[in-house]
Write a structure and sequence with these properties.
It is a single chain. This protein is α+β, with helices and mostly antiparallel strands. The chain is 36% helix and 12% strand. It is built from 16 helices and eleven strands. The longest helix has 29 residues. The chain starts with a helix and ends in a 32-residue tail after the last strand. The site of one 2-acetamido-2-deoxy-beta-D-glucopyranose has 5 residues, from loops.
Amino acid sequence: MAASRYLRILLVASGLSRGSNDGQPVAESFGPSLEVAQGRAPQIFNAVHDAMRQWGESLHHNGMSFFLATVPEGVILHHGNNNEESPREPDWLAYEVEHAEGFARGGFGGPGGGPGRGPPGKPPAHYLRSDNLHGQVELGSIERAQEPMIHEVVDERPLEEVKGGWLHTYRVVRPLRYLYVDGMSGGKTSMGTLDSQDYLLRGTKEAFEDLREEGDQVHSPPPPPGGGGGGPMNERARAVELCALCKDWNLSGIVRMEAGFEIIQCDFSDGLEQLHVSQRPPSNGGRGPGRGGSIGNFEFLRGLSERYYDIGSARTFIDYSSMTSAFFFPVNLTNPDPARPDLPRLSNTTDAELLAIQARLNQTILDRISDPIRTVDWRDVTDLIVGRYADRIRYMVEKTHAVSQIADEIDFLLTAIIDFSGKDRDQTSAAIDRCANFYLHGVNPVTESDELIRAAIHAVTSEICTKLFDVRALVTGESNHDADASSTLPRAVAILTSLMTYLDWTRFKRCGSCEVHEVCFVPMWPMGTKKDYDSPRCVNASSQNDHGGGYWGGFGRPGHGPGDGKGGRGEI
Ligand SMILES: *[C@@H]1O[C@H](CO)[C@@H](O)[C@H](O)[C@H]1NC(C)=O
Ligand SMILES: *[C@@H]1O[C@H](CO)[C@@H](O)[C@H](O)[C@H]1NC(C)=O
Ligand SMILES: *[C@@H]1O[C@H](CO)[C@@H](O)[C@H](O)[C@H]1NC(C)=O
Ligand SMILES: *[C@@H]1O[C@H](CO)[C@@H](O)[C@H](O)[C@H]1NC(C)=O
Ligand SMILES: *[C@@H]1O[C@H](CO)[C@@H](O)[C@H](O)[C@H]1NC(C)=O
């Protein structure tokens, strides 16, 4: 009980509180179903499509799904801290060297530093406004920690304290299995980016312990709220608890994403070989070691943008057939923040529902852990579908001036799947059926997750094909005797616009190609503004600093509503 109460205090303190709802059991029929998957088809489609992609996960940042992930042998990972030694506790690994380098500072903790060891150092230039990263700042000091974020940080510590930190490089020596938590799951916000970890993984873990111990003493008392947990929104406590779960599952840790992909590595002696550890130069006035100023910021962004659509070089394989998602279950995911109905939350689910979802996750992991990696590559399937339709639909909505232009485009898309022989009794519905199944013939579902994903993808393609045939009827005059009437174009565009809203593909927000001195910028915790979220655009090294931050809110400070955007200064 103590643990559960502790968790509640913690969640209240971090702005993640929700109504107490203990004791309501779930109905026996509660579980994943094809109907629910069809009802949440676009969300499931997008969760699959966005997996391990900095772009999609940044926009659909409240992840509701988990996947088993494998990092193959030979992958190089990085860790930065203030210490020549490899961490002996759960700590962070970065996929990109500059991400780890940002934490390789004297006295500084991060993905991986030893949080709480020594005075907090200043962040590197590219994390100028984010010295509240992993494990660095305690909950109570978040306010203070944000103070220096607005202006260029000038390090005022005496020189001897400003020694360079250490950069550790590791090579993976055997395939390592992880749990991938999707969305901006490394983003320490109260907008919902931590829901799946804190409500589902940690909350139910506590609840399981409670059930197991039936009121007995909890073995080791948890640290006091807002204190020893360490790190923004108790990042250290989160890592430790998630690693306790990983131990049960025989997983090496958790793959997450913030501005960059990272791993919570539970044991640095598990499958990692240290290649080298090197000391960074002494810090120069608070700028990133040897790479300060706006160039450093900008080049950090450029590196991130390189991972928008692919982590690269087959560095991580996702087992889509192991997908476990709150989207599969009949739970209320409505965001209590009326300003963001687009973002799902787990804050209105009951403990019993969370337990049921975690039980399925547990079972899925046990079932899949020894199976071959990647039974069905569902992300490839979604890529084919998005690739065929996204730009064409957007073109019709945004760039056409005449009905004939839409008619030509629709004709191109649909003629291939219509049988003109007269064999089909109902030519249109037979064609819609063929169209909806077009990219699904080649895949054979193996697991229940596969069946649910398939149902979701089929629901999405059915919607696309149905709407395209509706537009076809309109522009060819089948359902509209005066296809050239001035109302036809806006009616067709309205159908396609509502289709875009339904699909909610992050591809619709791509910038188009930027110049070589520019990067398409989207908010990535802790950077960015609401405007950047609504309409990502190309930025250059000087314009990136023009706009304010604040998209990610006030880091869960009590008294701040979810995602109210106040107090956060998340610009680069
Ligand atoms: C845990 O995983 C390792 C490496 O994949 C494997 O060698 C070991 O047998 C597993 N342990 C259990 C208890 O399944
Ligand atoms: C679902 O959750 C929202 C937000 O918390 C709440 O307003 C709504 O009443 C809930 N719906 C049901 C059916 O419980
Ligand atoms: C869900 O939200 C409604 C309306 O805000 C509230 O009455 C109810 O207690 C919430 N349920 C849970 C389980 O949090
Ligand atoms: C997972 O399931 C196994 C087998 O049913 C059970 O022993 C274990 O306690 C479960 N673990 C969690 C964290 O739910
Ligand atoms: C950077 O972008 C800003 C805003 O678009 C523009 O005014 C400025 O000229 C650009 N600077 C360079 C060096 O391209």
